[in-house]
C-alpha cells in the first residue's frame, strides 16, 4: 500500500509539473484530492490494515496529500499573481498619453452677426424687440401702408396660411406692434431681428427663409440727417472707421422719402473688386423716414412726431463679412462649413 501511495505521489507531481492553466490545475486538484480520488480510496481501505500498519500508512498518506497540496498551492499562488498582474496591466492608465480632443460647439455665423449688430445698436441706446413669425396681414402689410390692392405687395411673394394670416415677409410688423404697445409714447428706439419668409426659389443668393434686422426710431424732431448719422456710425463699427455710405433715392411703401444705402466695399476699400462688381459700393440697407400714414396707423400724430426706419438682410452682411458665396450654406448644417467659424 505504501508503494501505491508513493507511485500516486510521483504520478500526481509529474502531472502537476506539466500544468498549463488554472482549469487544468482545478481538474488535477479534483482528480487527486477529491472525494472520488485515489487518495480518498486508499484512506478508505485503511480499515483493513493491522493496528501496527495503520498509523504508518496513515502517516504516508498524509505526507503524500501534503506534498500534492503544497504543489497545488504553489501553482495556485502563481496563477493568482499572474492574474493580478494581468488585471493591473489591463487597468493601467498611461498619464503621459495625450487626451482625446472633445468636440467643440460654436455660435452659428448668422447668430454671431446678429449679436454683433445688436451690440452696436444697444451701444447707441436701442432695445431689442421681437414678434411672431406667423403674422396677421394687418401687421405685415396694411398697417405699413400696404392695403390689400397695393401693387407693391407683388414685390414680396408671401406664404399665406389663410386670407388674413401669413408667414411674415419682413420684420416691420414688429415696428407696428411696438408702436401699438407704446400708445403714443416717445422715444421709440428699437431693433427687431428675426426670420422672414418669401416665396423665392432658393439659389446662391435667394432663400425662402432669411434673417432681417430692422430698426425704428420715433421722437420729436427726428430728421433724415439723424438716419444718415446713425447708419454711418453703424457701418463704421461693423466694417471699420474708414467705411463710407452713399444714399440713393428709392421707394418703399412705409417710408417717405426712401433710400437705398450703399456701403463702401470693405474688400477693396472702394477701388472696385469682384465682390462689389467693380463699383466700389455694396448695397446692404434700405431705409427712410417713416411714412406719415404709418405713424398715424401706429397711433402717432405725424404733425408732432417723425421717425426713421431701416432694414438689412443679415445673411448678406454675413456673406460679405466672411466671403461666403452661397446663402444656402447657412441652413444646410454642414459641419465642414460651420466649423470654419469656431474661432472667429
Ligand atoms: Zn470691392
From TrEMBL:
Keyword Iron-sulfur: no
Main location: cytoplasm
CDD domains (UniProt xref): PheRS_alpha_core
A molecular function GO annotation: ligase activity
Enzyme class: ligase
Assembly with partners or alone: Tetramer of two alpha and two beta subunits.
Name of the protein: Phenylalanine--tRNA ligase alpha subunit
Gene: pheS
